[in-house]
Design goal:
The chain has 335 residues and is α+β, with helices and mostly antiparallel strands. It has nine helices and 15 strands. The N and C termini lie far apart (60 Å). The protein binds 2,5-anhydro-1,6-di-O-phosphono-D-glucitol and manganese (II) ion (2 copies).
């Protein structure tokens, strides 16, 4: 079989895009290549998860107080290892690690970027063969090159992200990333082991027919959210309701679907957990950046996610994210 040279690999695409910036040093392309590499390794394990003893609990509890699944640990270590040995990353923060990690070798200390990630999102779905993912967020460090990175490099508001993306391990494996130039999706071609451009210039439809929320928590949401959800279930000429409810329980899969098809995803605060469940730095910021770059909107119910000034690495926030017009409609219930 001949390889079709009209395809663009992740690497080729990124280099081509960044070439237009005279000040670009190629470090960001190299970083995205490293993330692609780590995700291919995770993909291999995800695909054979039913065959080997990597399913199930690792027997420990992470800093968030949740059970750690073995594949969480594996994925965390792959991203950690690949980024540490790459040439573009000065340090990492991960949902699975108590504190950020400084890469203190000479090459890493001279690197421009720090990366925050949720190595395995939707880990409750690992054992049951449902799509899971990885989410990542890239900031340019604010500490001087040549020194160890510091907590200030990580605790930057989301609008300072240089790039953000996710990998979805689903019916096919895809990597989607956003920079200020837009959002592009790459599908892994397993026959050549390369992510190839399949979804150029992704735009989130301004409206859609899908709403995604955990209905089990309905009575714990505040009144405007309950009213909006109820409206989603009603016949409505102006919005095209009733909408369809879709909730996988892997944010990557839920938001990916809504990004492509149009829709709204919500993880509101509850009476028990006013800040909700999702983590600002590993889940909400990267998705807010991606969805905004695709024309959508992301808020915590009051303010733009990307404007939240983070106070700690593991902080949580309510999240409402999706198609612009649906988000405006939700907003009208708050007012
Ligand atoms: P993680 O597996 O990284 O802990 O994240 C799971 C998250 C998110 O992916 C999903 O949308 C949400 O948890 C589901 O939570 P509920 O089961 O409470 O709805
Ligand atoms: Mn997650
Ligand atoms: Mn996770």
């Amino acid at each position: 079989m001949n390889i079709n040279r009209s395809i663009l690999t992740l690497d080729e695409f990124t280099i081509q895009q960044l070439r237009d910036f005279p000040q670009a040093t190629g470090e960001l392309s190299s970083l995205l290549r490293d993330i692609g590499l780590a995700s291919k390794r995770v993909n291999v394990e995800v695909n054979k998860a039913g065959l080997v003893d990597i399913l199930g609990d690792a027997g420990t509890i992470n800093v968030q107080g949740e059970d750690v699944k073995k594949l969480d640990v594996y994925a965390n270590n792959q991203f950690w290892g690949v980024l540490k040995h790459g040439i573009s990353c000065a340090g990492i923060g991960s949902e699975e690690m108590d504190d950020f990690v400084i890469f203190d070798d000479a090459v890493s200390m001279n690197s421009k970027y720090v990366v925050l990630f949720d190595p395995l999102d939707g880990s409750g779905n690992i054992d049951v063969n449902v799509s899971i993912g990885t989410i990542f967020s890239v900031f340019r460090r604010v500490s001087p090159l040549g020194t160890p990175c510091t907590v200030e490099d990580f605790l930057q508001p989301g609008h300072k992200q240089v790039a953000a993306g996710y990998v979805i391990y689903g019916s096919s494996t895809m990597l989607v990333y956003a920079t200020k130039r837009g959002v592009n999706g790459f599908t892994l071609d397993p026959s050549i082991g390369e992510f190839t451009l399949s979804h150029p210039n992704i735009q989130c439809p301004p409206t859609g027919k899908i709403y995604s929320v955990n209905h089990g928590n309905f009575f714990q949401y505040d009144l405007p959210v309950r009213e909006y959800i109820t409206a989603c279930q009603k016949k409505n000429k102006s919005t095209g309701g009733p909408y369809t409810q879709r909730y996988i329980g892997s944010m990557v899969a839920d938001v990916h679907r809504n990004l492509i098809k149009g829709g709204i995803f919500m993880y509101p605060g509850t009476t028990d957990k006013p800040a909700g469940k999702l983590r600002l730095m590993y889940e909400c910021n990267p998705f807010a950046f991606i969805v905004e770059k695709a024309g959508g909107v992301a808020t915590d119910g009051r303010q733009r996610i990307l404007d939240i000034m983070p106070e700690s690495l593991h902080q949580r926030t309510p999240l409402f994210i999706g198609s612009k017009l649906m988000m405006e409609e939700l907003d009208s219930y708050r007012k």
